[in-house]
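User: Just a sanity check before I run the rest of the batch. Below are the structure tokens for the first item. I only need the designed sequence back.
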């Protein structure tokens, strides 16, 4: 099930996406009663997807990122695979949705794309045992862990490098029925392929990451875990269009603009 968050005529709602580009009339949204973090019903009121603005599929309290979770990506930046997952935060103010602009930060001269599978948490959880990880996940979406690489290398903490406004595009929706163990991940810039990998190449699995994170902190409904990026990261420039495509989910597209 694909659950999207959208706005129309100034109103914000969630809906189930039905159909695709090959469907007569295109895909539609069946508006749901309530929100996806509890039992909900479809209203039967349907709106063409083309008539709405897609928003970030969730508004997370926090985004927990994981660094160097693909060995080839760690190597391309001259790093070893860490002994334990390297976790960092991206603030809620970094989150944008599909079609929203990535504003190039004025304090950086080297901003990179990082295509990632994002895990969306469905219920409050702490100290989750491995066998219960699936129970706390709502679904999965596409993410771009946009990074000011020069700032990341210069500063010991990654807060500014990975937490600046608009550095966390998410979308286009949450797919709730998906086996995430071996999905293709691709990133293109202006239609040119930059990254191509599979989630099966992760050093540590989603179960490993959720167990590790929740040993330390409580995750809330709508929180997001970024699972790392495959090799092939590279620069973004003002005017570029960057797209993250994940098998079984869809494509997240954003354009890079100069921060005004």
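Assistant: Here's the designed sequence for the first item:
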């Amino acid at each position: 099930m694909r659950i999207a968050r959208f706005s129309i005529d100034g109103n914000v709602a969630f809906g189930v996406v039905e159909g695709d580009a090959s469907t007569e009339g295109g895909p539609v949204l069946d508006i749901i009663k309530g929100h996806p973090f509890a039992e909900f019903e479809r209203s039967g009121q349907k709106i063409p997807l083309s008539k709405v603005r897609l928003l970030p599929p969730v508004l997370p309290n926090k985004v927990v990122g994981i660094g160097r979770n693909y060995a080839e990506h760690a190597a391309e930046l001259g790093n070893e695979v860490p002994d334990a997952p390297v976790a960092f935060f991206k603030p809620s103010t970094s989150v944008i949705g599909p079609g929203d602009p990535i504003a190039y930060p004025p304090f950086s001269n080297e901003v990179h794309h990082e295509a990632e599978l994002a895990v969306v948490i469905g219920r409050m959880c702490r100290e989750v045992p491995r066998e219960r990880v699936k129970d706390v996940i709502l679904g999965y979406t596409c993410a771009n862990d946009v990074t000011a690489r020069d700032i990341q290398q210069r500063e010991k903490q990654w807060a500014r490098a990975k937490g600046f406004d608009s550095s966390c595009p998410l979308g286009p929706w949450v797919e709730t029925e998906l086996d995430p163990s071996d999905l293709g991940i691709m990133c293109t810039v202006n239609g040119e392929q930059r990254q191509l990998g599979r989630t099966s190449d992760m050093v540590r699995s989603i179960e490993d990451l959720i167990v590790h994170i929740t040993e330390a902190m409580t995750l809330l409904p709508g929180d997001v875990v970024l699972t790392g990026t495959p090799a092939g990261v590279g620069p973004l420039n003002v005017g570029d269009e960057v797209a993250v495509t994940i098998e079984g989910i869809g494509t997240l597209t954003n354009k890079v603009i100069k921060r005004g």
